[in-house]
Amino acid sequence: MHRQDYEQGKKIEQRQLNNNFKPRKETRKGRIVTKKTLWLASLPAPVLIAMLLLFSGLPRVKASDQPAAGNAEIKIDNFSFGPQNITVAVGTTVTWVNRDDIPHTVVSTDGVFKSKVRDTDEKFSYTFTKAGTYPYFCSVHPKMTGQVVVQ
Q1: Are residues 93 and 146 in the same domain?
Q2: Residue range 36-66, pLDDT digits in tens
Q3: Do 93 and 72 form a contact (C-beta atoms < 8 A)?
Q4: How far apart are CA 74 and CA 124, in angstroms?
Q5: 95 and 48 both lie in a single domain
Q6: In this structure, are strands 85-88 and 123-127 parallel, antiparallel, or unpaired?
Q7: Are residues 105 and 81 part of one domain?
Q8: Residues 6+ apart with CB under 8 A from 22
Q9: Is the sign of the CA dihedral 98, 103, 104, 105 positive or negative?
Q10: 100, 127: one domain
Q11: How far apart are the first and last CA of the chain?
Q12: Given this model, what pLDDT does residue 7 score?
C-alpha cells in the first residue's frame, strides 16, 4: 500500500471518529458517498425509464376512433354483395347470407377465407382477428366483388 493512500485512510477514519459519522466512503475526487446518497441517485433512473416506456410512441386512441367488435352481415342478392365495402373492428364476425336464387361463394383474394357454394338462404361466417384490408369475390361469378376493412 502506498504511504499516501495509508495516510488518507487514517484521515478518513479519524474524521469519522471525531465527528461521530456513520461509515462512509470517499471517492477518488473527494466526494463522500453514503448508502443514502447512492439510493437517492439510483431512484430517478427506473422512474425515468418507466415514464419513457409509458409515454413514448403509444398511439392515442379514443373509443370513438374504432368501430366496436361484434357481428356484421353482408347480403348476397341480384349478383352483388351488399354492402360492397364494409369497415369493422378486429374481432368482428362477418356473415354473408345468400338471398339470391343462384348459388354463390365468398372467396378472399388473399386466400384468408373461402366458403363452399352457398345456396339460397345459406350463410358463411368468418371472424377477422387481424387488422387489414380483405378483398373478396364470388368464384362462380368473378365480377361479383367486395371488401372488408378491419381496423
Answers
A1: yes
A2: 655 556 667 677 677 767 766 655 555 444 4
A3: yes
A4: 10
A5: no
A6: unpaired
A7: yes
A8: 16, 34
A9: positive
A10: yes
A11: 70
A12: 67
CATH number at residue 111: 2.60.40.420
Residue 119: domain span: 63-150
Angle at 146 between CA 142 and CA 147, to 5 degrees: 135
85 strand-pairing partners: 147
CA distance 141 to 151: 28
pTM (2 d.p.)? 0.56
Of 107, 63, 124, the closest CA to residue 89 belongs to 63
pLDDT tens string 102-150: 999 999 999 999 999 999 999 999 999 999 999 999 999 999 999 999 9
Same domain, 107 and 44: no
